[in-house]
Every structure is written in C-alpha cells, then in structure tokens.
Design goal:
Elements: H1 4-18, E1 23-28, H2 41-45, E2 50-56, E3 59-64, E4 69-73, E5 79-83, E6 95-101, E7 106-110, E8 117-121, H3 144-148, H4 158-163, H5 173-183, H6 196-215, E9 256-260, E10 263-267
Antiparallel strand pairs: 1-6, 2-3, 3-4, 4-8, 5-7, 6-7, 9-10
Helix pairs in contact: 1-6, 5-6
This protein binds a DNA duplex (12 and 12 nucleotides) through helix 5.
DNA sequence: GTAAACCTGGCA
DNA sequence: TGCCAGGTTTAC
C-alpha cells in the first residue's frame, strides 16, 4: 500500500489528533512483524508526550518529548489509525499495536500481511535511513544531474533505479509507473540509455506526480485508509497504473502491461520511448 | 542480476 | 484452486 504520498497523508491526518498527547499504555498484541517489535517498547514510550510527527521516505515518524523516535513502516498492508475515545474498544483482526492516549483515544497499528515494521531510534545506533537517498521533492538533493550521474555506474532499468530507496527514497510501484508515463520514458529502458534531458523530465514528472498524489490524499487501490479512516482519491487519477487495455489518456492507444524487475508495469507504447 | 522469501486476503 | 497485490531482504 503506502508509498510516500500515502504515508504523508497518514501523517497529516494524525498530526492534529496525536501531537501533545501523552502515551498511557501500549499493548503489543503481536510482536512478529518483518522484524520483531523492539522489546521494551511499551516501557520506553509510556508516560512520554508526543512532540511531533514526521515522515522520511515511506516511514512515518512519531517524535517523543525525550527525543526518542518511534518509527512505523506500513509494508504492503499496514495501517496506522487513530480512533476517538468512544470507538476505542472494538479491536479488529491484525491489530498488532494498540496505543492508549491520555484523552482515551487510541492509535492502532494494523497489518494483515505483517510486512510492516515498528522501530525505535534514540541516536545511539545506525539509523534505518543511513543509506537512503534524497526525498523526491527535495530540489537540492534530487535533480536531473543527480539522476544522470548514475548512468555510468549501473546497467539497471530506469524503473529499477527509481524504486531503489538508496537513490531516491519514497517511490514505489504505482508512482514510478505514473512518473515514467508523464516523462515519456519506457520502464524497461536502461538508465545508461536515458538522455540528460530525459533525466530532467523524469525529475520534473516525479515532482508533479508526487505533489498531485499528496494533494489527492494518496491512492486507495484496494484498501488504503489514512490516519482517521478516510480513503484517498488519487486512484481515480492514475494515468496508467492498473489500466491495462484501457486507452492512453494522451493518444488513445491501449495501455500495455509488462513485468519489470518482478513488478507489474504499465505504459503506453505510443507516448513512451 | 534474478528468484524466492516473508504473510494474508481478495478475486477470477 | 491459483494467482495477484502498495515492500523489502536474503539467497542462488
């Protein structure tokens, strides 16, 4: 589910209802996610106040008032959702973490497939973000020359490169398909064969698509919900993702589906070279 | 590089 | 019943 726009949407929806709240308790109902939930997590956050929310790549950050960073990754099927006091009692299947706040509301991490992650960072160990590339919306870090600079270092496809979190952090399968359509570049093209001008176009398209997607509060392809249970709206605006056989919005040709790097890819053979 | 692995659920 | 899914890591 959540790529950068979805995680940012979750963050924005949670911020007004969780910042300033104090954690009363944490019920870890299932600790076996992609990695085990850190032992002692409940003890370390209970009694602490939530100072801020943040996001890095596809990770949601909850900053505690003692500087401890509480980090969530949604994997493919994770949700982080806030429930007002009255609604807090009903527990659903796959509710792995239930956080009780001091206004009797709850923050619940639910993840059927358990590909998600819950982490704590206090600055004493190597951060999960240590090897991560720039944010796609960071003009200073992610620009045409930066992308072009990888051309001589790799023989990978442009799609594979854009999905690599060490090169640019936060893009996933949906948005890379959309970006490459807007930039007019086929997903199977090798980065080394992509021109400098095309690198610029790809960076521009990235900005356009990601900003649009955030504006529309992310894509609910099957079941994405934000932090207060709302669906996103960007799925209705996908130009190619999931649209095999439908007409290209530009030229009307039939959208094709192929597999690139084991992931479904969609493109228009008329508009993308 | 490429495939398989980790899981569950939904759909044809 | 089999295949597919927004992600990431690990093993040939």
């Amino acid at each position: 589910m959540p790529e950068l726009p979805e995680v940012e949407t979750i963050r924005r929806s949670l911020e007004p209802v969780v910042v300033g709240r104090t954690v009363c308790s944490v019920d870890v109902r299932c600790a076996s996610l992609r990695k085990p939930v850190p032992p002692g997590l409940a003890q370390r956050v209970t009694g602490r106040r939530i100072a801020a929310t943040g996001r890095r790549a596809k990770y949601l950050l909850i900053e505690m008032d003692d500087g401890l960073m509480w980090i969530f990754h949604m994997g493919m099927s994770g949700r982080l959702q806030h429930f007002p006091a009255a609604a807090g009692e009903a527990r659903a299947k796959h509710d792995h973490l239930v956080v009780l706040l001091d206004d009797d509301s709850t923050l619940v991490f639910n993840d059927p497939r358990r590909f998600g992650l819950v982490l704590l960072e206090d600055g004493t160990t190597k951060s999960v973000f240590a090897d991560y590339g720039p944010e796609p919306l960071d003009r200073a870090g992610f620009h045409g020359d930066y992308l072009a600079g990888f051309r001589s270092r790799t023989n990978r496809t442009i799609k594979d490169v854009l999905m690599d979190q060490r090169i640019v952090a936060g893009l996933g399968n949906i948005y890379v398909n959309e970006i490459l359509f807007l930039a007019g570049v086929r997903p199977r093209r090798r980065l080394r064969r992509v021109t400098g001008a095309e690198c610029e176009r790809i960076v521009d398209a990235t900005r356009t698509i990601i900003e649009e997607a955030i504006e529309h509060r992310g894509s609910s392809v099957s079941d994405f919900l934000d932090g207060i249970g709302r669906r996103g709206g960007y799925q209705w605006r996908h130009r190619v993702y999931g649209r095999e056989g439908e007409p290209c919005p530009n030229c009307g040709a039939s959208i094709r589906a192929i597999v690139v790097g084991q992931r479904s890819s969609f493109y228009c053979s008329g508009c993308q070279r």
